[in-house]
Amino acid sequence: MNTALSADGTRIAYDQIGDGPIVVIVNGALSRATDAGGLAAALADAGLRAVTWDRRARGSSGDAPGSTPEREAEDLAAVIDAVGGGASVLGHSSGAILALFAASLGVPMHSLLLSEPPLRFGVDEPSDDLAERLQRLIDDGRPDEAVVTFQLESVGLPREMVDGIRASDQFAALVPLAQSTVYDTALVHLVSTPTPEMLAVTQPVTVIRGEQTFPVLVAAADRLAAAIDGAELVVVPESVMHRPDPAATARVVRDRVS
């Protein structure tokens, strides 16, 4: 992977595939750049240059103590600059929130494609101290409990599903990402109700969601699209339960990126 240097000196690992207009993918919680590999390949097949990256505290990227949502916005800016600028940004889940937040701070991007951002608009928000409690678990050497707590309280997964994940082979790969749950929690807590600046971004905005997905995500996508002047809402039937279908999503992006 290649490396971009963020404003605070943190090294951010990224990769790219394909030729054409640049689309930077911003992953959601508990994921690495490789998790967007199928989507990146579909974008490349659609004639685009797809960029995947490890958000800080994940995979091959670095981290810095006390990282904030603003630092993550700087990471995105560093990746866009490293690949030559002039990028559109496709964010999924908390990555969609980060993309919109970064745009509101002036991070340059051509257009925004926001896939199922978990915005709550003040309804059934996690507790205000969740990020602090997650950090304490990590500092106490219990990153596994941080991951479980994040899944239960931030994501809102039912206990039986979380217990099943913990018992599966995939759980071991999630534990090293525990620190990133603090950052995702802090980001969503900060702007779960989007700021006026987020709703006033000047880039073209496309909000994308599946037809069959979690009700909170349907409500969030529909409300966000209605709140941003000129935003387009696109429902992708092939995307099911918060999993973007690569080929169908790539078609939506291709038709809106030049």
Structure in words:
The chain has 258 residues and is an alpha/beta fold. It has 2 domains: 2-122 and 193-254, Rossmann fold, CATH 3.40.50.1820; 130-187, no CATH class. Helix content is 43%, strand content 19%. The protein is built from 11 helices and 8 strands. An 8-stranded mixed β-sheet has the order 1-2-4-3-5-6-7-8, sandwiched between helices. β3 (22-26), α1 and β4 (49-53) form a beta-alpha-beta unit. α2 crosses α3 (94-104), α3 crosses α8 and α4 packs antiparallel against α8. The longest helix is centred in the N-terminal third of the chain and has 14 residues, at 69-82. The two termini are 26 Å apart. The relative contact order is 0.16. The model has no long low-confidence stretch (mean pLDDT 97).
Strand content: 15-25%
What is the assigned CATH homologous superfamily of the largest domain?
Alpha/Beta hydrolase fold, catalytic domain
Average predicted local confidence, pLDDT: 97
- Count the strands? 8
Oligomeric state: single chain
Q: Characterize the biggest β-sheet.
A: 8 strands, mixed
* Number of H- or I-type helical stretches: 11
CATH topology of the largest domain: Rossmann fold
For the largest beta sheet, what order do the strands appear in spatially?
1-2-4-3-5-6-7-8
Query: Helix content range of the residues, please?
Result: 40-55%
Query: What is the CATH level 1 assignment of the largest domain?
Result: Alpha Beta
Q: Report the span from N to C terminus.
A: 26 Å
What is the CATH architecture assignment of the largest domain?
A: 3-Layer(aba) Sandwich
Shape: globular
Q: What is the succession of H and E elements?
A: EEEHEHEHEHHHHHHEHEH
How many domains would you count in the coordinates? 2
Are there runs of 5+ residues with pLDDT below 50, and where?
Answer: none
Rounded to the nearest angstrom, the radius of gyration is 17 Å
Which class do the helix and strand fractions yield? alpha/beta
GO molecular function: hydrolase activity
Domain AB hydrolase-1: 23-250
Pfam families: Abhydrolase_6
Keywords: Hydrolase
